[in-house]
Amino acid sequence: MPFKLIVFDWDGTLMDSEARIVACIHAAFADLGLPLPSPEAARDIIGLGLDEALAVLLPEAGRDGRLALIERYRFHFLVANDTPSHLFPGVAETLDWLRSRGHLLAVATGKSRRGLDLVLSSTGLGGHFQATRCADETFSKPHPEMLLQIMEELGARGPETLMVGDTEYDMQMARSAGAHALAVCYGVHSPERLMAQGPLGCLAGLADMPAWLEKRAVL
Fold first, then answer.
1. pLDDT value at residue 217
2. DSSP string, the chain
3. Fewest CB within 10 angstroms: 15, 46, 150, 191, which?
4. pTM of the full predicted structure?
5. 37 with 103, same domain?
6. Which pLDDT value is given to residue 183?
7. Is the dihedral of CA 129, 150, 14, 118 positive or negative?
8. Domain shared by 108 and 27, yes or no
């Protein structure tokens, strides 16, 4: 197989969590008496770190205002909101297949460490990944540092690394880190927006990934 290391985004790539994230953003804004961002605007920032996302949604807010929103968002996401989130079809089977072929697997996400640990535990996928990085541990996407740290930890060079994600932030991070990118077309950013960033391809479903990799292996 052409890639030693495969790094996945989480929200919108492995888990269908869009509705829950948007609901929690709206609840946080409502708690503080702020006008709600449109669902489209809230959806568009999924993939960024929370502080960076709120700076986009409410640019006039200062640091203290964003911290208050972060606290309310985390309360709703971790405690109060029960909007269901599910793995996309074929995720567990694809990860099992990749592990059986000897790929190193990792996660690079805009989630907080607490949020990622929660979903890794609830889905039972924690044991699939040799490394994970979150936006509250290093620079947020599209900065390459998150991916560079994973590559260094697992001993993979850029040409040996594939970043899989559903946003242009994932594609930009991969390019800046000297890695390859593969888009998935069922997440928050449109296929046209993703392909403008020059990924190797755009999958209709993660279950298509084994066939895509096997085809590349014989090119």
1. 76
2. ---SEEEE--BTTTEE-HHHHHHHHHHHHHHTTPPPPPHHHHHHTBTB-HHHHHHHH-TT--HHHHHHHHHHHHHIIIII-----EEPTTHHHHHHHHHHTT-EEEEEESS-HHHHHHHHHHHT-GGG-SEEEETTTSPPTTSTHHHHHHHHHHT--GGGEEEEESSHHHHHHHHHHT-EEEEETTSSS-HHHHHTT--S-EESSGGGHHHHHHHHHT-
3. 191
4. 0.93
5. no
6. 98
7. positive
8. no
Please tell me whether residues 55 and 102 are part of one structural domain: no
CATH of the domain at 51: 1.10.150
Domain end residue (candidates: 65, 80, 95): 80
Residue 206 belongs to domain spanning: 5-16+86-217
Catalytic residue, from 9, 44, 166, 170: name it. 9
Residue 165 half-sphere exposure toward CB, CA atoms < 13 A: 35
For the chain, how many residues are written? 219
Number of domains observed in the structure of the chain: 2
* 11, 16, 166, 170: the active-site residue: 11
Q: 201 and 131 share a domain?
A: yes
- 133 and 183 housed in the same domain: yes
9 is catalytic: yes
pLDDT score for 218: 64
96 catalytic? Reply is no
